[in-house]
Amino acid sequence: MNKSTVLFFDSGMGGLSVYREAKKLMPDNHYLYCFDNAGFPYSEKSEETIIQRTLDICKKINQNYPLDAIVIACNTASTVVLPPLREQFSIPIVGTVPAIKPAAEISQTKHIGLLATKGTVKRPYVNELIHQFASHCIVERLGSTKLVEIAEHKIQGKSVDLIALKNELSPWASIENLDTICLGCTHFPLIKDEIQICLPQVKNFMDPGFAIAKRLQFLLNKLEVRSKSEVKNQVFCTQDVENKHQLEQALALWGFDGITVLKLFFLFMRLPL
Fold it and tell me: Which of 185, 207, 229 is the last residue of a domain?
């Protein structure tokens, strides 16, 4: 039986939280993971830059590894890149959406929080989600780039700075009836235990990873596999990484074999803000 080749794409390593759920559900697929470290973090980039970088990178990988599906495992990117990607590719494109609806449903106090990047919390579509599914709730919003960096450090085997984490989450520390948090960035499930320590009043953490994996499984079951070749699970990035050997060892625990730097023209151009 031929295996589907699936690309998970993020600006950093947070998309591993979505990949983890897909790997549990479909352990035999070929998985490719790309983190655009030359463009990290996307929360600080313009929509036009995010779209162009995502398109260029996905096209480049697809040239060498015919893809059966692409998962944009990044909330910030998913808010803007899905329509242009679907115009360019005929394969399934799966995005990541904050789990506002299930958070509103499960909350007992009807006081919930959206924890995401600065880019995601400001997107109009988030307003629409809240209006549609959580209009009966008080919804707090907290956008943070620092939490993304803390999660990146954890993946690389570094200790989590709980003091910095607590400082970032301090606006919510005194909200006693905040019982549910929507993890609106794929990095945040990776530090969920540490977030729980800082916000002990929170009972529910909503992570869309499993729902995304189920959606991916449904779509792949309907497709004929494009690539017949056997390839190892691989990781790609867009510029050289520090402590590459250490990171490769960490990624081996996730089931990946090595890191390859993509050579793309735009990487040598000045990044727009």
Answer: 207
Q: What confidence tens digit (pLDDT) does each residue in 131-151 have?
A: 999 999 999 999 999 999 999
CA proximity to 196, closest of 183, 186, 187, 205: 205
Structure tokens belonging to residue 41:
């973090």
What does residue 106 show for φ and ψ, rounded to 5 degrees? -85, -20
Q: Tell me, what's the pLDDT at 228?
A: 64
Taking only the tens place, the pLDDT of each residue in 189-203 is 999 999 999 999 999
- Whole-Å CA distances, 134 to 97, 109, 117, 126, 129: 14, 12, 20, 11, 7
Q: Could you give the number of structural domains in the chain?
A: 2
Residue 273 in domain: no
CB 65 within 8 A of CB 32: yes
What b/e string do you get for 3-32 counting C-beta neighbours within 10 Å, with b at 16 or more? Answer: bbbbbbbbbbbbbbbbbbbbbeebeebbbb
pLDDT bracket for residue 24 (50, 70, 90)? very high
| Residues 6+ positions from 187 with CB-CB distance below 8 Å | 12, 13, 14, 17, 147, 148, 151, 152
Closest CA to 86 of 42, 55, 49, 125: 55
Q: Among 36-50, 66-80, 222-236, which is the least confidently predicted range?
A: 222-236
113 & 195 share domain: yes
For residue 127, which of 141, 115, 143 has the smallest C-alpha distance? 141
Pick from 35, 43, 45: nearest CA to 11: 35
Q: Which residues are catalytic?
A: 74, 185
